[in-house]
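Example complex used in Figure S2.
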Amino acid sequence: MSSPTYAVRLVDAGKRYVKYDDVPTLIGFAKRLRARNTRGELWAVRHLEFEVAPGETVGIIGRNGAGKTTTLQMLAGVTAPTEGSVSVHGRVSPLIAVGVGFHPELTGRENVYVNGTVLGMRRRDLDRQFDEIVSFAELEKFIDTPVKFYSSGMLVRLGFAVAIAARPDVLLVDEVLAVGDLPFQIKCFQRIAEIRAAGTAVVVVSHNLTAVRNLCSRVVVMESGSPRFVGPTSEGISAYHELIEGRQHDTTTTAPVRVLGTELLGASGEPTVRLQAGEDATLRFEVEFLQTLQDPVFGITLETDSGIVIYQDSTFVEKSGRFDAGRRIRCAARFRVSLPTGTYSARAGIKWSTHEDAIRMGHMLLFFVEGRPFVVGTADMNASFELDDLSAAVNQDSSEAK
Amino acid sequence: MAAVANGFQLTDRPAPIRQIAADLWHSRDLVVMLARKDFVARFRRATIGMAWAVGLPLIQAVVLAAVFSAVARVKTPGVNYPTFVYTGTLAWSFFSGTITGASTAIVDQAGMASKIYFPRAVLPIVTVVSNVFAFLPSMVLLIVFALAFGVPLGLHTFLLIPAALTLIALASSFALVAAALHVYFRDMRYIVQAAVLPWFWASAVFFPLSYLHHGVLKTLILLNPATGVIVLFRAAIVGADRGWTAALPSCYAFIGVLFAAAILLYRRFDRVFVDLL
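Predicted assembly (679 residues):
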């Protein structure tokens, strides 16, 4: 069989849901035949169109409610589109957090067989791959215990191990990248990479933009059910940020201030994305005042790649003074990089009142820190270690007691 | 194999019947696997679990036999009454248990069904298969029971095979339709449960067909598809009711019509059941 040109193709796909006020019943149906109520309708996805080639990885990003899960359901074949078409060549395996079809009374072994069969594996494949699945999940000692005794981590590992073993032609990964401990996540990523190299198409849905950037060559940015951008990942992520900022503009009618560019400068003063721990860095941004503001607060936020805030600081305490309309100010926040190796994001912004919407932020900048070796954690506090020999003092005390 | 190996193309139009048949055929491993899971889960922890599956129709038979031979004076001349009743309660127990259990089959598995595709018809079929597993020991017990009461076996005993197949077919056809309808009308399970009560009385479980006189009542009871299965079972064990074959056409007609309805329902709604789960 000649290999197909695409693994996944959506053409003008749309999905409409009808909102029911109440649980549908036969009695209710008879009543409704007489009274034609207008039922609520919702287009969860509309005019969605993209293709994924074999071996390609495409990400779907967007805010909550953008239609990502509905799209994934259509790709899994679980629900049919109301409009357009969804075509998939080959077997689809959804990589879901908890084992599908797991039953608590059954042992891990029995659940592997059930789960594997649901995912489309044949019995002989399961027999052949069973040991591999168990060792990937690191559950050799527990495989014959009922899964109701498993911890949530063990359940996740087992579910993944089976889903990955299914050797699909299309792999759907849904927010599963945040689950499990780090060594296991690494194992999963490695296995996904192997599957990709073998020609499997992968579709990833995630809020973790770093992961999306690392895994996906193209992204689809969705907003309220419509595709806003389909194309290379870095452009897509910028488009996504613009979308978010655009939304912020919508919530308040006109803001009295605008944030222009944001830059991250290294020790040399040049814009960079790589910083060294122990060096100074500067987050610099420009602000234009459209109205006169008194004592606005200039601030910065540093976050880990999973969105945990490491450091947030501002000019809140020192009054910044009065800024007339029309003035353009450049603010530079200089700080010592005290972070372990990792990926981080930085944002700068300006706040002009205590009201929670009275804030404007610049673009989120991703940067990488090359930290001091063997330092682990969220922050590098740069401890200095001092060793004092107490043995001599002890001998002195005991000799005095005599 | 659940999802079809070649992939799929989904639009808003119903799938071709050939596709549905192929998908179902490929899912046979899944049916067996899920039925075993259901069966093991049902009976693993409950020590009386299996005994209950066998014991319930037996107890029903004993009670009915006692009540109706002593109190209502139902007589089956030449035929051992307890065995007569037990045959009926066994078949009825399978039928009613299967259709009430299967009506919620799709809705109960909402979690699994919303994550991965497999032909939804698999779920009520799994209920049927699981109940068949539980039914087999009862069949053995029935034969033992019959022999204990001096009921002879013979060529007619081979009728058990078409009887069992007809029972399974009838239960399956109702199960498929009920499960599909229950997704859209959540009172279906209660309608089925409520219907089962009077239905029992109209299914000639504890009285022979000869007890009925010509009239509307007899016609209704002959039109009842369950009657056909029960008299077929009786013909295999204790001997045929007089005029029993009159109950068969309706039974097979129901099977045919309901399977056709099931095909139409699943063809149209299989890929959109999830929207209501």
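Chain A touches chain B through 46 residues (CB under 8 Å). The mean pLDDT of chain A is 83.
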